[in-house]
Amino acid sequence: MENAKKILDEQFDELVCSLQNVIRFNTEKSDPAPNAPFGTNVKQCLDYVLNWAKSFGFATYDCDGYAGHADFAGTGKEVLGILGHLDVVPAKQEEWRYPPYSAEIHDGKLFGRGAMDDKGPMIACLYATKALKEAGFVPSKTVRLIFGCDEESGMQCVEHYFSQMPYPTVAFSPDGDFPVINREKGIYQFDVVCGKLPHGVKITAGDRANVVPSLCTVTTVEPLTLKSPKVACEKTSDGYIYTATGKAAHGSTPDEGVNATHVLIELLDDIYRDNETLRFLEHSVRDTTGKKWGIALCDKESGSLTCNLGVLRTSDDGTLTATIDIRFPVTYNCKQIYELLRANTPKQFAIVERHVSEPLHVPSDSNLVTTLMDVYNSQMHTNLQPLAIGGGTYSRCLPNCVAFGPLFPHEEQTIHMPNELIMLKNLRAMAQLYLEAIYRLAK
Ligand SMILES: [Zn+2]
């Protein structure tokens, strides 16, 4: 393996050059074309990477343009999967210091959309596998690099791919954080179709279940005495608009934001004491821990449930619908969450599932997790523990998979933001980590 590490280090400039070429494909999702379900750019990038892998001597497979893989064949039947993606979230050119698809290098930083998420780490894994091959390593497991093409906008790629191909025996996804994320809370996003608001009252807030709304407006025909410095009032030709401002945050960490609906719900419930919808919002939903609702769950593996009231909409007949995102601890399942919600919600209010995902939980003492932790801690001279998170990574798309990098602890996070970048020294370090991880898991 020492020889492979040396080869990888010697090929680092070539790795960087390949990565620049891959970043230069603008792989934002676009209109489908034949064999290119996510647009021709994404498909061209997939072709490029697979052809490149083929030139290294790996067998490649294009799964109808949804995803593809490159195999470093092993002697046995088992497969080590490495799951990443080539598609990116859109970049607004004017917000970037350097053009997002030019892959410029300045001060040891490679700038570009996808540099960290997820092209950089996948190209690092590809070169790590190549170096192992060139060093003469013969794995027992086949090392399979799987390149998804739709991770950022629906994950149809893996759905389609795994309908055609078996799951790897064991896998990691370089699309999260170092050292290892082995526990991801379950996701339960749903609507509660409540009753009617008081006559003439409308509440509007948020666009997405998984974002803490930073703005909430209440319109009324009659003026209200809302005594709060946090609420602004404006008179219009048809009535009044009351606006509360909060602070946006990701729905999996609602306490990092300020939910703009909370202050208005409290004030309205104070005024309209007999409205069952407002009472439900105030006395059940307006709590990020789920305690008031009677759904506060907790386990030692992943901590406490979180509850984000993401969207409020009032229909023309005055019926209020609340869209909520719950992240629940890993030792529970979606069915239990539904039953708990149903038992604690007025029975006349419908609960309609939107997007749900069972938790990811690969035990901390499993061979996969202990091996990756050991690879990380020994190379980086740390003594860290595996992580539990409330968000969802790619690794929950398949069983027995954990996230392994690419973000180092305390490193500035630029994923999905303008000026996304990868530090070349980190790219070099992660390539070596991936090399050792592949070696130890596939040997
Ligand atoms: Zn990603």
Key features of this structure:
443 residues, alpha+beta, Aminopeptidase, 10 helices, 24 strands, 26% strand, binds zinc ion
Short characterization:
Helices cover 29% and strands 26% of the residues. It has 443 residues and is α+β, with helices and mostly antiparallel strands. A hairpin with a 2-residue loop joins strand 4 and strand 5.
Question: What would your notes on this structure say?
Answer:
The protein is of the alpha+beta class and 443 residues long. It has two domains: 2-184 and 360-442, Zn peptidases (Aminopeptidase, 3-Layer(aba) Sandwich); 186-357, Alpha-Beta Plaits, CATH 3.30.70. It is built from ten helices and 24 strands. The chain has helices at 2-10, 12-23, 40-55, 119-134, 156-164, 260-271, 276-285, 334-343, 367-380, 424-442; strands at 59-63, 67-72, 79-85, 105-106, 109-111, 142-148, 170-173, 176-177, 181-184, 186-196, 202-205, 215-220, 231-235, 240-245, 298-299, 303-304, 306-314, 319-328, 350-357, 360-361, 387-389, 401-403, 406-407, 421-423. Strand 15 and strand 16 (303-304) form a beta hairpin. Helix 4 (119-134) crosses helix 10 (424-442) and helix 6 packs across helix 7 (276-285). It is elongated, with a radius of gyration of 25 Å. It starts with a helix and ends with a helix. 47% of the residues are buried. Zinc ion (ZN) is lined by residues 85, 117-118, 151, 175.
